[in-house]
TrEMBL record:
Catalytic activities: Release of an N-terminal amino acid, Xaa-|-Yaa- from a peptide, amide or arylamide. Xaa is preferably Ala, but may be most amino acids including Pro (slow action). When a terminal hydrophobic residue is followed by a prolyl residue, the two may be released as an intact Xaa-Pro dipeptide
Residue ranges of every copy of the Peptidase M1 membrane alanine aminopeptidase domain listed in the record: 254-464
EC number: 3.4.11.2
Gene3D superfamilies registered for this protein in UniProt: Neutral Protease Domain 2, tricorn interacting facor f3 domain
Limits of the Aminopeptidase N-like N-terminal domain: 44-213
Gene, per the UniProt record: pepN
InterPro entries given in the database record: Aminopeptidase_N-like_N, Aminopeptidase_N-like_N_sf, ERAP1-like_C_dom, Pept_M1_aminopeptidase, Peptidase_M1, Peptidase_M1_aminopeptidases, Peptidase_M1_dom, Peptidase_M4/M1_CTD_sf
SUPFAM superfamilies: Leukotriene A4 hydrolase N-terminal domain, Metalloproteases ('zincins'), catalytic domain
Family affiliation: Belongs to the peptidase M1 family.
Residues covered by the ERAP1-like C-terminal domain: 544-863
Pfam families (alphabetical): ERAP1_C (PF11838), Peptidase_M1 (PF01433), Peptidase_M1_N (PF17900)
Name of the protein described by the UniProt record: Aminopeptidase N
Cofactors required: Zn(2+)
Length: 880
């Protein structure tokens, strides 16, 4: 009876799966990917692509593959036209092609070798995904680049688009004769065609890689060449932007990376060359296409780069280079293992900077950016384990977040602290050697680390990778008779969270208030469970205790009864910027937890800014005081009546102006202060000041008003100016001075920011219909983020119904990057109970929203709750 029931259950399951697979859906599910992986192997693509400046391109792909099981087979191809299809020598004319997939009938397949040939025509993308085309407004030149992660190779050509169906790629491209063509390998030949205006570029067969890291980029790029040992290096950028690129920095950071990674991984760079291509309208920071990495033009500054910008460029270059091993050489089997790519690349980039670059402050930057992103993302109700469950490729997009990047990298840092750098490195080397040119899972990686370290990776993985949530701790210390008694109480708030094993560093400060000095000692501490205790032998009782002093732990320290005077003494006299930034961040967290007000924080921040010497900390303080995005002292002023708001903002501007008078001319700090001056402009007097600077009636010694700074000022003034004549004449003038793509986008942002409901309505209609717009998704993103600044909530309120109606009409096949940007930029964030109720009601009544939209709304619900709590903390100040 049991056997009969098992057979019936299996048959029913297969029937249900068959039915599910035969209901066309664009996004690939995990079940479909597993089904296809069990069906075919040994895939080879041979591609012929014909590029031109037209709106579409034509091509032909020959796919060789081995069939292991005879069954219907899905081929992925989104919104293109199939000209012809030949399977195993016979033309297919009755194939089903719906919602981005073609069903290859089982009766045309054979066990063993099969060949599929497809001729197609595909429209160029305007979304940044697939094969994207860009027309440079400066010189009217056309540039093309590919972006395939996570499920967009099929937007260029028909393929089996999943990471564990690795394949070789052979490519030939016909393109205009003045174009460079870049792909995974170096071209073997470039020959003339019958058309004298075209050239045929032929590329040799690649090594075995996943579809999402194959690439094709083309256009009349300017480029520079260099070499690291035997590896050819090239850097490409569009011609009109070339004068702003500093190739020396790019090649220096690249060579530093190769020197470190070749040694650390124990496997020489596995591909034949290394190209870096700076491309316009890119959705992300960069993308690790095999040997042809793409970078956003955001990394090209039209003014002299600050040290922070150069450090960030180095970090991103190293991140993408680390992917050549973690992601390209060894690839996760499915998108639940995305962290195996991104967490490692994030951690390895910081490690490479620390070990072999000028940026020794890298771990401070890691704490400031990645760690805080991780804590923030893990605090939302939408959080997920680092090793997340991913049902389909639509959900895969939502995993590119602070948990996959920041938390994953942070827990790797914690793991290295547990098992030691040597064991970790050896485990990584074994893992990379064992799974080269193939796919891996979490278990594969854990086995290699456990083998070399003897550390129980199963429990660590369950705690840190497979369970979501952040632990919180409270620390109690008592000191007497040269002994410090410490008690750590651990909590696991939120659903599915758990208590974990941690290793951290306890930092002890000793004050010499007479001489205004501090001394410092630290002790490693391991803790677990609900409560842990330790006794440390000390010469003197400490005046202040710092938890997680070197930032190896991933945990939130809940402060209790903090002595503000002692805290400020440490912040003033400690010389270590990492420890100080940890304390500053924990201090600011008290504002977000509604334990203190922004006003209390501001008083400390302004006093200590004036005596701080570290530029990174000063920039951080300014971002919490004067940024016009997120929760800052400046944005909190819009909770208050107009009179207090104006008085507070004028006071903030006066502080910034005083610091601008004292700062070194031409320094990075001067630029940070000036950007803060622009951000905090609101009152009539501060607006007049910006006009005076724009018209050269006021200046700051050493500060160069480059074009991007000018646009920042103009967009800010446009968002405040009701009398349009003055600002419009300036916008028109700057448009003529700056016809570049940045200038075009900035002028549109200035227009969209105008405090005029009619202008908002015009742009809302454009944003609601992106497919019919002449603008790219990139341009529309710029517009959407400029549409409703903090002080235009009364106007935004008029468009809430249109916003929610639009969300209800978007489809799961719509571009996820656009959906994400639209939802984030226009979601109501009014910090009111009414908004919270509206968001909850809409989200509950629309359970089938596209994944990026749903995640954004759920996060905004959490943010509104948090904001309302913070606002309530200020209620007494509001009535003064």
């Amino acid at each position: 009876m049991k056997q009969i029931f098992s057979i019936f259950t299996l048959g029913s399951l297969l029937f249900l799966l068959h039915c599910k697979f035969n209901q066309p859906n664009y996004h690939l599910t995990l079940q479909e990917a597993e089904y296809r992986y069990e069906t075919i192997e040994n895939i080879k693509y041979s591609l012929e692509i014909n590029l031109s400046p037209k709106d579409s391109f034509t091509g032909k792909v020959n796919i060789q593959f081995v069939v292991k099981k005879i069954r219907d087979l899905r081929l992925d191809y989104f919104q293109g036209e199939i000209k012809s299809m030949v399977l195993n020598g016979e033309a297919l004319s009755d194939f089903e092609y719906k919602k981005g997939q073609i069903q290859l009938p089982s009766n045309r397949l054979m066990i063993g070798n099969n060949t599929l040939s497809v001729s197609f025509e595909t429209p160029f993308a305007k979304t940044g995904n697939g094969l994207h085309k860009f027309l440079d407004p400066d010189d009217k030149e056309t540039y093309i680049y590919s972006q395939f992660e996570a499920f967009h190779a099929n937007k260029m050509f028909p393929c089996f688009d999943q990471p564990d169906l690795k394949a070789t790629f052979q490519l030939q491209v016909t393109a205009p004769k003045n174009w460079k063509v870049i792909s995974t390998t170096l071209p073997t030949s470039q020959t003339k065609t019958e058309n004298p205006e075209e050239v045929l570029h032929q590329f040799p067969e690649s090594k075995k890689i996943s579809t999402y890291v194959f690439s094709l980029h083309a256009g009349p790029f300017q480029f520079w060449e260099d070499k690291f040992e035997s590896i050819p290096l090239r850097l490409f950028v569009r011609k009109s932007l070339a004068k702003y690129v500093e190739p020396k920095d790019w090649f220096t950071f690249t060579k530093e990376g190769f020197a470190f990674f070749n040694s650390y991984f124990g496997i020489p760079y596995p591909f034949e060359k290394y190209d870096q291509v700076i491309v316009p309208e890119f959705n992300f920071g960069a993308m690790e296409n095999v040997a042809a990495v793409t970078f956003s033009e955001r990394f090209v500054s039209r003014s002299q780069m600050t040290r922070s910008q150069r450090e960030n460029l180095s970090d991103v270059i190293l991140h993408e280079m680390a992917h050549m091993w973690f992601g390209d050489l060894v690839t996760m089997k499915w998108w639940n293992g995305l962290w195996l790519n991104e967490s490692f690349a994030t951690y390895m980039a910081s490690l490479a900077q620390a070990k072999n670059s000028e940026f020794q402050e890298t771990w401070i930057s890691f704490f400031e950016k990645m760690k805080q992103w991780a804590y923030e993302e893990d605090g939302y109700s939408t959080n997920h384990p680092v090793e997340a469950k991913v049902n389909d490729t639509e959900e895969a997009f939502t995993q590119f977040d602070g948990i996959t990047y920041g938390k994953g990298a942070s827990v790797i840092k914690q793991l290295v602290f547990f098992i030691g750098e040597e064991s970790f490195q050896k485990g990584v080397q074994n893992y990379l050697r064992k799974y080269s040119y193939s796919n891996s899972t979490l278990l594969d990686f854990l086995k290699e680390l456990e083998f070399v370290s003897g550390f129980s990776m199963k429990k660590w993985s369950k705690d840190w990778l497979e369970t979501k949530g952040t632990n919180q701790i409270e620390l109690t210390t008592v000191c007497a008779d040269h002994h410090l008694y410490g008690k750590i109480v651990q909590a696991a708030p939120g659903p599915e969270n758990k208590l974990r094993d941690h290793k951290t560093i306890l930092g002890l400060y000793f004050f010499d208030k007479t001489n205004k000095q501090v001394s410092y000692e630290q002790f490693p501490v391991v803790y677990s469970g609900r409560s842990s205790e330790a006794i440390l032998e000390v010469k003197f009782c400490p005046d202040y205790v710092l938890f997680n002093a070197e930032d190896h732990d991933f945990v939130i320290w809940k402060w209790t009864d903090v002595n503000k005077q002692n805290l400020e003494f440490v912040l003033e006299f400690d010389k270590d910027p990492m420890r100080k930034l940890i304390l500053w961040t924990d201090y600011f967290r008290q504002v977000s937890l509604a334990n203190i007000t922004f006003d209390e924080f501001k008083d400390s921040a302004i006093r200590l800014y004036q005596i701080e010497t570290d530029t990174k900390i000063k920039r951080w303080i300014l971002s919490k005081l004067a940024s016009d995005n997120g929760y800052t002292y400046l944005t909190s002023r819009f909770w208050f009546p107009e009179s207090k708001r104006n008085a507070d903002l004028d006071s903030l501007q006066n502080f910034i102006l005083e610091e601008l008078k004292k700062v070194k001319a031409g320094s990075d700090e001067q630029r940070y202060l000036y950007l803060s001056l622009i951000d905090s402009t609101y009152t009539e007097g501060s607006q007049k000041r910006l006009y005076d600077i724009l018209e050269n009636k006021l200046s700051f010694s050493g500060l160069k008003l480059d074009q991007d700074l000018r646009w920042n000022m103009i967009i800010k003034l446009s968002s405040l100016e009701k009398d349009r004549n003055k600002i419009q004449s300036i916008i028109d003038r700057e448009k003529k001075l700056d016809p570049s793509s940045r200038g075009v986008n900035s002028s549109l942002a200035a227009e969209a920011s105008e405090p005029n409901p009619e202008v908002k309505q015009k742009w809302i209609q454009v944003l609601l219909n992106p497919k019919t717009s002449n603008h790219s998704s990139s341009t529309l993103r710029v517009v959407s983020y400029s549409l409703f600044p903090e002080y235009q909530k009364n106007i935004q309120l008029q468009f809430l119904d249109q916003y929610f109606d639009a969300l209800d009409k978007f489809q799961h096949t719509d571009d996820e990057n656009y959906l994400d940007a639209f939802a984030k930029s226009l979601t109501p964030d009014f910090c009111t109970d009414e908004t919270l109720l509206i968001l909850k009601k809409f989200t509950n009544n629309h359970p089938k929203l596209p994944a990026p939209v749903k995640k954004t709304l759920l996060k905004q619900i959490d943010s509104e709750k948090k904001c309302i709590q913070m606002k309530y903390k200020h209620k007494e100040l509001m009535t003064q």
